[in-house]
Amino acid sequence: MEGQRSRASFLKNTAFATISQGLAVSSAAVVGIIVARYLGTAGKGQLALTMGAGVILAEILCLGFDRAAQYYVASGKLTSEMVFGAWIITFVIGTLVAFGIVYPLFFAYCMDNFFNGVSRNLLLLAGLNCPLYLLRLLVNSILRGNEDFPKETYHNIAIYSAHIAASVLALVVLGYGVFGYISVIMALGFSSLVFGFAILRKVISLRPVFSLSNWLRVLYYGAKASLSKIFTLIDLRLDIYIVNFFMDTSVVGIYTVAGALANAFWLLTNSIAAVLFSRVASEEAEESRQLTSLLCRNVLWLTAIFGVLFLTISKRLIVFVYTEPFADAALALAFLMPGVVGQAVSRICFTDCSGRGFPEKATYSAAITAILTIVFDIYLIPKYGIYGAAVASSIAYCTGGVLSVYWHLKVSGNKLSALIIPRMTDLRYYSAVLRKLKARILD
């Protein structure tokens, strides 16, 4: 009976996480279409470079606290208020480092190469995305640790609604350019953050407990996870800066369309990983092993099948939605697709490893794939442009998928066949889920 309740809870949380991820993808698609049509390839490239820099910095400067916060709250080793206090310390340090050190370095050394075609004022304004993103991570990580995925979904709805509203208001209604659009999205973004803290207040007291020992404890776990995140960011984000280094912002804008469509295939994977981490951290080894096996093999084949089907219509869809100048994104997406499958597998397997207390396994593998990304990007992009970038990413993602399976098997004692070979029981599982959904709809 307890197992049934646990599985039902997992399905419920996964459903909310999927809704959240779906809204993220939908919001990104709507905003991306509006930006493409009103700002063109160059404007889209400028936005990707500047806003992306803020997100990358936030992901690095949070020191892995988002994953550590979720782990310590879910496992009950620290209270939410203790984690909240540690997060605030990290936020202050991260913001000071971003604007006191990193952005001055950008201005001094990167404006004529990696940020070629971007003004200083534009880059600095977009830098506000760093503290904004840090605070969003704070809210969502504590909500996830408490397995309150419905409230996290409400918070994300506010965020994505703000993104869409900003693009419509700034570009369609007011006719602003890139600078005006970023100004509006920052203003609405901080407004949605207020709503996020109002939601968080319903879960914890918002009275942070400050403790250096707790901060160091969370930092120790987070540091192991943060190295993995840094290397993963290199895999996922560095290529647009190398593309801009060798080419220009217009080409970056085209490549971001292929990347956005590839990200859509990780919707279900990201949702599952968000819920799986807390579940693995709190369940017995055998139960979590069976759950990871089920999820991995199904994510693998569903991603591959739907990816191939989507490629048959991708070019016509891209031209219709984004306009003709973005047509080259279709072939880039085709070269990205093998890596999309590999990355989907790695997110499931490495989430399992982290939930078992081994986040460093993802770090080892991510370091290898980051090196592969840089080497193949530098070799292929000057010759083949965005197609070379896509091939480089696929090589890195597929390598990461193989390494993730290897480490999962080592730490869990699982079998390879359980991870990759579909089973008839999976069909019965889906059938049972569909019957439950149908019953709820009819009720």
Question: Can you describe what's shown?
Answer:
The longest helix has 60 residues, at 2-61. This protein has 443 residues and is mainly alpha-helical. The model is unreliable at 1-5 (pLDDT under 50). The radius of gyration is 21 Å and the shape is globular. It starts with a helix and ends with a helix. It has one domain (2-442). It has 17 helices and no strands. The protein has helices at 2-61, 65-75, 80-109, 120-126, 129-145, 149-173, 178-200, 212-246, 249-264, 267-282, 285-311, 314-322, 329-355, 360-384, 386-412, 416-420, 424-442.
The span between the termini is 23 Å
Number of strands: 0
Low-pLDDT windows of residues: 1-5
| Rg (C-alpha, Å) | 21 Å
Strand content: under 5%
**What spatial form do the alpha-carbon principal axes imply?**
globular
Q: What percent of the residues sit in helical stretches (DSSP H or I)?
A: over 70%
Helix-strand makeup class: mainly alpha
Mean pLDDT: 85
Count of domains: 1
Number of helices: 17
> What does the main sheet amount to?
none
Regarding quaternary structure, what we see is single chain
Spell out the helices and strands N to C. HHHHHHHHHHHHHHHHH
Spell out the key features of this protein.
mainly alpha
Compile the SSE list and pairings.
Blueprint: H1 2-61, H2 65-75, H3 80-109, H4 120-126, H5 129-145, H6 149-173, H7 178-200, H8 212-246, H9 249-264, H10 267-282, H11 285-311, H12 314-322, H13 329-355, H14 360-384, H15 386-412, H16 416-420, H17 424-442
Helix pairs in contact: 1-4, 1-5, 1-6, 1-8, 1-9, 1-10, 2-3, 2-5, 2-8, 2-10, 3-5, 3-8, 4-7, 5-6, 5-7, 6-7, 8-9, 8-14, 8-15, 9-13, 10-11, 10-13, 11-13, 13-15, 14-15
